[in-house]
Amino acid sequence: SPPTTTTIFIPAAPETDVPPPNASGEILPGRPPLADSSGREAVPSALADRSWPGFAALIPPEAIRSGGPPPDGIPAVDEPVFAPVAGVDFLAESEAVLALEVNGDARAYPLQIMTWHELVNDTVGGVPVTVSYCPLCNSAVAYDRNAAGRVLDFGTSGMLYQSSMVMYDRQTQSLWTHFDGLAVIGELIGTQLDFWPMAIVSWAAWRDAHPEGMVLTTETGYSRSYGRNPYVGYETSERLLTPAFQSADIDERLPAKERVVGIRGGGDAVAVRHAHLQAAGVVEVELAGAPLVVWNLPGASSAIDAAALADGIDVGSSGVFERALDGRLLSFARAGDGFSDDQTGSTWNVFGEAVAGELAGSRLRPREFVDTFWFAWGTFEPTSRVVPPLG
């Protein structure tokens, strides 16, 4: 049966000891906004007039609300500077990073930077990508920037849809929903970005598995309180931190801000309840007929909880992979600081790599997933199944 929804009032956020980025709506010091990029195409802009006269839309335009900052008020990182693992000394063991690997190029994007910038336009493994993180819906997604016959650059629009970031591309100034990488208003309406699998994991886990990897540094061109949380208490508050967005249709199957691991593909979607996953360590699901393993390893702190990111509650590091490997179907259990398969007893790390045993050197195929809050997953995947099934 279809999920039940209700319209609720969401109070303004409580005060925090570190103000949210650009809470006043002003652009903070740094490079100027890039809305008038030299790559701008001569097409109507969906960014310039928020009433969108004459534009078709894939979502209700009235549901797109200002989050406070203007376009690029939360500035994307367009010239990312990276350092080798051995040269990084600004991250605590439990701090969360976004883990992305493209064509053997492994990179980590610390959430202590992403909470202040939300977008990084990068090239990884020779592929133009945008790495995105929305603190309000607690979701991280990586996209291929090759779309509609050009390479796109993305910036923050200053707008939200159902408390989730709305991006814009600088070439056509179309608006895109961050959560699903879809152009919803503007010249590129209907264009869907391709995803790259990306996970939120602890710095310690990523560092140990990628000694030759590269890490985004705080040399962003902006002055920010990196390491401090601009959303103190948001993780454990029942409220949605969007003063300009006072109501939302919430899927009532789960509490709005319950964490889930959301997996989608092949016309199917499933949400694994995070508390269940943390307790079990390993959960097996099927997505469009494909057998998958979902797992979680303790040791990663929430970036939207305590004043210092390293002090956030332990939400662990999650991963989603195909269970099939070289013609056999593997089953897994959590074992110590990793996982083991029932068939060979080989040891696996959180990145789906066998590090010891008969299958050492093997890698499971990663699947795109989102660690997120239920209200966001329920908005974009309203027909999603929930695991474990609800009574």
Strand arrangement within the widest β-sheet reads 2-11-12-13-14
Q: Helix proportion of residues, in percent?
A: under 10%
Number of domains: 2
The largest pleated sheet is described as: 5 strands, antiparallel
Mean pLDDT: 89
Low-confidence segments: 1-36, 243-247
Termini gap: 13 Å
Shape: globular
The total beta strand count reads: 31
Estimate what percentage of residues fall within beta strands.
35-45%
Radius of gyration: 20 Å
SS field, number of helical segments = 4
Q: In terms of structural class, how would the helical and strand content be classed?
A: mainly beta
What does the model show?
There is one protein chain. The chain is mainly beta. The chain has 2 domains: 35-216, no CATH class; 247-387, Rieske Iron-sulfur Protein. It is 7% helix and 36% strand. β13 and β14 (182-185) form a beta hairpin.
List keywords for this structure.
31 strands, Rieske Iron-sulfur Protein, five-stranded antiparallel sheet, 2 domains, 391 residues, mainly beta, 7% helix, globular, five-stranded mixed sheet, 4 helices, single chain
Could you outline the blueprint of secondary structure elements for this entry?
Layout lengths: L4 E5 L54 E3 L15 E3 L11 E7 L2 E6 H7 L1 E6 L2 E8 L4 E6 L1 E2 L2 E2 L2 E8 L2 E6 L5 E3 L4 E4 L9 E2 L1 E5 H7 L4 E3 L30 E5 L7 E7 L2 E6 H7 L1 E6 L2 E8 L19 E6 L1 E2 L2 E2 L2 E4 L2 E4 L5 E2 L5 E3 L12 E5 H7 L4 E3 L4
Parallel strand pairs: 5-17, 20-31
Antiparallel strand pairs: 1-18, 2-11, 3-17, 4-5, 4-16, 6-7, 7-8, 8-15, 9-10, 11-12, 12-13, 13-14, 19-20, 19-30, 21-22, 22-23, 24-25, 26-27, 27-28, 28-29
